[in-house]
Amino acid sequence: MKKTLLTIALALASAAGFAQQSATARQSKSPTAQRMAKQGMVDIRDMDSTIQVSLMYSRADNFTGKVLYTDLREAYFHPKAATAVAKAQQALRKLRPDLSLKIYDATRPMSVQQKMWNTVAGTKKSIYVSNPRNGGGMHNYGLAVDITLCKAETGDTLDMGTKVDFLGTYAHIDDEAGLVARHIITPQAKKNRELLRRVMTEAGFKPLKTEWWHFNLVSRAEAKAHYKAIK
Predict the structure, then answer these.
(1) Which of 26, 88, 77 has the alpha carbon at shortest distance from 51?
(2) What's the average model confidence in pLDDT over 26-31?
(3) How far apart are CA 33 and CA 195, in angstroms?
(4) What's the mean pLDDT in 121-129?
(5) Domain limits of the chain?
(6) How far from 12 is each of 1, 3, 25, CA to CA, in Å?
(7) Cα–Cα separations (whole angstroms), residue 200 to 27, 101, 148, 185, 229
């Protein structure tokens, strides 16, 4: 009897500890993360902790030259997109167990989209940014991802020919053979891009012609018709 009571007590203590850890984890989320969670978005690492995250807009080394995410460090997605990213990670690990996906941007609140637009409005870079006035882009619905390949153990990114967020034709995917022929990107960089596209398209994503790192789960028309933009 004493042994049974002790077992029950230990089980209750363990459950209480887990609940406390979960509550602490929720409380440790940034205000931006908490707002996205309330709008139905999910943290990708809660779905697959092997996926690496390094949000480029939480640093100044992006095309805007500014920190746009002042408190966000996690990658949140619409549940459908999160499921697809996790599926792509599984496909990659089957092909290359030594590699992992690394996320550079996921759900982008419309308030951040406005900051980004304000930075590029009236410049040549504006063609690369969706105007919030027109409903924004797929990132604003949690249905797009900026992503690359990296070493699973170290997080070191693979050569993709250009840095992520490079705005120019060298980042385009429609003439990669020509880029190799002109010695602009290496044959290995082309293979790395092709591997990324393979696992992402197998998971249901569609690549963007002008950015090797960008993938959409649905079209803009479908997003506007059936999903809500994230505030």
Answers:
(1) 88
(2) 75
(3) 31
(4) 85
(5) 31-226
(6) 17, 14, 20
(7) 32, 10, 10, 21, 23
* Residue 166 tokens, joined: 């490079």
For residue 15, is pLDDT > 50? Answer: no
Whole-number Å distance between alpha carbons of 22 and 25: 5
- Per the prediction, the chain carries an average pLDDT of 89
* Phi and psi, residue 176, nearest 5°: -70, -30
Q: What is the pLDDT of residues 71-85, one digit of tens each?
A: 999 999 999 999 999
Is the CATH number of domain 31-226 3.30.1380.10?
A: yes
Q: What is the dihedral of CA 174, 176, 179, 180, to 10 degrees?
A: -160
Q: Is the pLDDT of residue 1 over 60?
A: no
DSSP character string of 144-176: EEEEEEEETTT-PBPP-SS-TT--SGGG-STTH
Calculate the CA 37 to chain-centre distance. 15
